[in-house]
What we know:
The protein contains 5 helices and 6 strands. It is globular and about 45 Å long. The chain starts with a strand and ends with a helix. It has a 6-stranded mixed β-sheet with strand order 1-6-5-2-4-3, sandwiched between helices. It has a single domain (3-174), classed as 3-Layer(aba) Sandwich (Leucine Aminopeptidase, subunit E, domain 1), CATH 3.40.220. It is an alpha/beta fold. The site of adenosine-5'-diphosphate has 21 residues, from helix 1.
Amino acid sequence: MTNITLIMGDITEQAVDAVVNAANSSLLGGGGVDGAIHRRGGPEILAECRALRASQYGRGLPAGQAVATTAGRLPARWVVHTVGPVWSGTEDRSETLASCYRESLRVADGLGARTVAFPAVSTGVYRWPLADAARIALSTVRDTPTDSVTEARFVLFGQDAHDVFAEALRTLESGH
Ligand code: ADP
């Protein structure tokens, strides 16, 4: 059973077993969470990402999937890279966003992680509306069974994002 917690902060500062990265398919770095993780985690993470590109992910990591690397110099043991869907007004990509959370938990669980920090995947450069992303993220994590993971910590960047997640969690817990 995974306990869901919400905090406002910077995901690169979380002392957890696994930090989830809102990566892009190339696995070779980007802006937002991805840029911050590679900057603070150092070159070891990128080196493992390059090795993944050279082996099982020659075409990149597809949206909705997840893969782990070292966390380099971050105060965590692993980074779990997942690729969120780009928001679309014409196509419902909710299942792909839910898959990011499910697959990240599955990978973290396989590593024996107990604590996992998540960003609000797809809500930055990929433009997913925050309230809808929060609903999908929280309900998916709540409904995904785990063996080792006991805490899923959502690390929200700023008061607005934190408030939106807190409201979504209240709604989820009240069953509406
Ligand atoms: P995506 O490309 O999946 O949209 P982004 O990294 O652009 O991913 O943004 C995802 C969310 O993470 C956004 O809400 C953004 O404000 C937030 N964010 C950016 N930097 C950090 C950070 N260092 N820690 C936690 N959240 C962050």
